[in-house]
Specification:
two-stranded antiparallel ribbon; TIM Barrel; eight-stranded parallel β-barrel; 13% strand; single chain; alpha/beta
């Protein structure tokens, strides 16, 4: 898998990144620790070198799974984690970083990210200057190698960049969710900030495995995803039917088509979750897909039939 530079850092990352929200178990159903570990190891074996987690994913459980699964190849992988919006005061950031280092069983974090902007989910609105001071101090101490932000608007990103170098932005971005294109994406391209697209398969809907009448199990947070709401879901299903022939013509599945479309775009890598080893290997294989210009344009147009009618709210869930 051909690696890419992370922003202006000297860190090389894989175009397909393994996301591990599901490994934390909280807000997911049917997750098994052994399968999560096997999925992470299968991703690495298939060429994925970059793994994304967060302290809030199962209150550190995901970080522990990631750290355990990668302990034998730590020097060959890039680990990214995040500090949550309720830990953005200076000392809270420092303490959270130390806890993540412990969970991950490592003495450095390659990419440390502010998970949500200050004030999110009712948290105290800490000045970004204070949070960024902690991030830059951690970097100068060698405890982190690069600084990123997640779920930030362009204005918030510009504000954070006043106080230190930002190497990445992690927004929700997929063929069916494209808010960042009109907001922060141009700024990122201009300033060599890598986009790490999360929910790159729209939380599974772009795999085609959810039919018109799908109902999520109790406890699965995805029932709150706006794409699964009745006012949008019919358009989603119609778009999937149009995407299927393109995937078939390229001898790939729908999920791989969605990932290949994302990583074909300049400055963007795709974060893809996996419950098991088979899914992880399939996601990794998307890095080798080369879609024609005609197919890329067709896929792009089909995606817009879902995204154009959506409202302007950047939050993907109805929390």
């Amino acid at each position: 898998m051909e690696l890419r530079m992370l922003g202006t850092s000297n860190i090389k990352i894989s175009p397909i990144i393994m996301g591990t929200w599901q490994a934390g178990k909280d807000m997911w159903v049917g997750i098994d620790d052994t399968e999560s570990t096997q999925a992470i190891k299968a991703a690495y074996d298939a060429g994925i070198t970059t793994f994304d987690t967060a302290e809030v994913y199962g209150n550190g459980h995901s970080e522990k799974i990631v750290g355990n699964a990668l302990q034998d190849v730590r020097d060959k992988v890039v680990i990214a984690t995040k500090v949550f919006s309720n830990h953005l005061k200076y000392q809270q950031v420092i303490d959270a970083c130390h806890e993540s280092l412990k969970n991950l069983n490592t003495d450095y974090i390659d990419l440390y990210q502010i998970h949500w902007p200050p004030g999110s989910f009712g948290s105290k609105k800490v000045p970004l200057e204070e949070t960024m001071r902690a991030m830059t101090d951690l970097k100068s101490q060698g405890k982190i190698r690069a600084v990123g932000v997640s779920n930030f608007s362009r204005l918030q990103l510009e504000d954070a960049a006043k106080y230190g170098r930002i190497h990445s932005l992690q927004p929700p971005y997929s063929l069916f969710w494209r808010k960042v294109e009109k907001d922060a994406m141009p700024y990122c391209l201009e300033n060599n900030i890598t986009l790490l697209a999360y929910s790159s398969m729209a939380q599974g809907v772009l795999t085609g495995k959810f039919g018109p009448d799908h109902k999520f199990a109790k406890g699965d947070h995805r029932f709150r995803n706006k794409l699964f709401q009745p006012e949008n879901y019919d358009r989603v299903q119609k778009a999937l039917e149009k995407l299927r022939p393109i995937a078939k013509a390229n001898n790939i599945n729908l999920g791989q088509l969605a990932l290949a479309w994302i990583i074909s775009r300049p400055g963007i890598c795709a974060i893809a979750g996996a419950r098991n080893a088979e899914q992880a290997a399939q996601n990794a294989a998307a890095a080798d897909v080369r879609l024609s210009e005609g197919d890329l344009a067709a896929v792009d147009d089909i995606g817009k039939t879902v995204t154009d009618p959506l409202d302007n709210d950047p939050l993907m869930w109805k929390w």
